[in-house]
Amino acid sequence: MDNIITICGGGSTYTLPMLKTLCDYHNEFPIAEVRLFDIETKKMEYIYEAAKVMFYELMPDVKLKMTIDKEEAFASVDFVFMQIRSGGFEMREHDEKVPLSYGCVGQETCGAGGFAYGLRSIRDIIDLVQAIRKLSPNAWILNYSNPAAIVAEATQRFFPGDQRLINICDMPIAIMDGFAERLGLKRNQLKARYFGLNHFGWFTNIYDMNGNDRLDEIRAGLREARVMPEELSQDSGWQETFEMLHQMVSDFDAFIPNTYLQYYLYPKSVVKKENPKYTRANYVMDHRLKDVERLCQQIIKNKTVQGSSLEKGVHGTYIVELAKALTGSEEKEFLLIVKNQGIISNFSKEAMIEVPCIVSSRGIEPLFVGEIPTFQKALMEVQYGYEKLTVDAFINEDDQAAFQALTLNRTIGDATTARQILDALKIKNQGYWPNLK
């Protein structure tokens, strides 16, 4: 059966590469129809016009439509790829600049910025999932909206037992691309053993196709020079991120950390490098948004994707490969966010953790991790407390829970500063957040 897919967040900068990936996988993952859904019609319209050219050229038998109507978007679909950004890049700018004004990390998914983004995202995600479940009860929902940790914590509370709602993140896969390039291999020739929370985890083993663990080899290489995925190599922000991976591996033994741990382990160093007047949000608005618009205009003008810079990218590849695995006959391994329930035996059972899973048409089967060391466990317990309290603050409209969440977060580490940041973010997020009291 050919699949009907809705991309929720059709105006995202990731949508066009995602559609290119669907074209590339069309023979392996048959599609009857793709629907683009978004509340921002302007951005979605030029992506839709470029996508029409692409589909006519590469996948002419597949229907393509765009809509702002939930019923039209979600009725009788097989998959929903969810990539929303609540508040857009304008609110992301506040997420980054407000914490920096108090000397704390300003980042979209980590620290106070991730907290603000999370409180905005929960309501939108819940509303969308409810609409999807009403119109397509058996659809697979592949949710990769950030901040994934907070979103996953919220969805497992609002939709307990929903086995077809999967929270995912492609960052560990992007890191593995860098590992593979350094080893002269492709990512699909490596299998990772990994544990943690989203944007807060560690690689414990990296196996090649012969069963050899290449982790020590990669660690040694990281101590000497950075590992940088080719896809991200032209982006100065990502260059700095992978420089910090070199620092973390040099400072801490045994495992290889997720790059996002830099914000929690070296918050002072991160802040020193930031320009509080021009953050990552400004860079993205000045570059990636405009680059995508120019790419769309080029494709529309030339009436072809040939000769353009459009590529499928790790983001789209990971999502489509996961969807393909869920409908196929093969078993494949993916890093996914799942409820712990004893997978990490000495960690909170209710926590949403990120671990390797076997994926097939039967669904998802997480791999057992066992006990984790004291250092990683302690860091994770504090971070999980922050994530849990953030969702508590949303559900109960609880100012005290919000304050406690920010006080726990390692990027802040001071109750007075946490209160100042919380009060400042309340002002910026009026109309987006619940009324904390």
Describe, in plain words, how this protein is organized in 3D:
With 437 residues, the chain is of the alpha/beta class. The chain has helices at 15-24, 41-58, 70-74, 88-101, 111-135, 148-158, 171-183, 215-224, 236-251, 262-265, 267-273, 280-286, 288-302, 313-327, 374-396, 399-408, 415-428; strands at 3-8, 31-37, 63-67, 79-82, 140-143, 165-167, 191-197, 200-207, 256-257, 332-339, 352-360, 363-366. It has a domain at 3-167 and 286-305: Rossmann fold (3-Layer(aba) Sandwich), CATH 3.40.50.720. The protein is built from 17 helices and twelve strands. The chain has a six-stranded parallel sheet, with helices on both faces. A three-stranded antiparallel sheet has the order 7-8-9. The longest helix is centred in the N-terminal third of the chain and has 25 residues, at 111-135. The chain is globular and about 55 Å long.
